[in-house]
Amino acid sequence: MSTPAVVPDVVEDIDLRAAPLEPWQVVVWNDPVNLMSYVVRVFRTYFGYSIDRATSLMLAVHHDGHAIVATGPRETMEVHAQAMHEYGLWATVRKAPQ
């Protein structure tokens, strides 16, 4: 028989609080393919944005080259970006600046 190993008492302070969820963003980028009216319709249909909000975001995409269309947990933003791809829009996910 072997002798059990002696393990010294270890006292560790363990912080069991959950880390805060860091926000992520879905960025939709301008492209030369999709009509502005189509982009507004996608934002209204998928995100449920009002006509004014969807139009404002579409104009930001058109004039600035991109717009942040959603912010939230990473997994959710990845789902949104994939949905934008399925609608034919170019979208990426990035960590929101702190």
UniProtKB/TrEMBL annotation:
- Keyword Transport listed? The answer is no
The gene behind this protein is clpS
Q: Which domain of life is it from?
A: Bacteria
> Keywords on this record?
Hydrolase, Protease
| Family from the record | Belongs to the ClpS family.
Native source species: Microbacterium galbinum
Record InterPro entries = ClpS, ClpS_core, Ribosomal_bL12_C/ClpS-like
Please describe the quaternary structure of this protein. Binds to the N-terminal domain of the chaperone ClpA.
According to UniProt, the name of this protein is: ATP-dependent Clp protease adapter protein ClpS
